[in-house]
Amino acid sequence: MTITIYHNPACGTSRNVLALIRHAGLEPTVVEYLKAPPSKDKLRQLVAAMGITVRELLREKGTPYAELGLGDPRFSDDELLDFIGQHPILMNRPVVETPLGAKLCRPSEEVLELLPVGKLPPFTKEGGEAVIDTGARRG
Prior knowledge:
- By secondary structure, the chain is of the alpha+beta class.
- Helices cover 27% and strands 14% of the residues.
- It is built from 4 helices and 6 strands.
- The model has no long low-confidence stretch (mean pLDDT 97).
């Protein structure tokens, strides 16, 4: 079974998602996307699998989003994917891909529905917040 997390180790949400996956007894493939950005085709596949738009994948905070003028609707999805390729920090994170689907996991407990395991015991995030798993998973 393959589980992949597109991870930024400097991001608390991303670290919590990785810890939740490991809490489930699973060891994902960790792609540090700032060092090894996904290809344009892979980004296109992820966006389609998540059922979101390319714009929904863009991160504004702490990125060159504003200086590049990416809020301008004139940019096509193809152009936006090119910008992500040139500036991987523009990709919102963490994105997780499992046999149950793909999802932008913000907040971190969103990853639970993608984990192909039974209900997990409680988990505590880095900041001390408890995560209680309902056991609900994608189909």
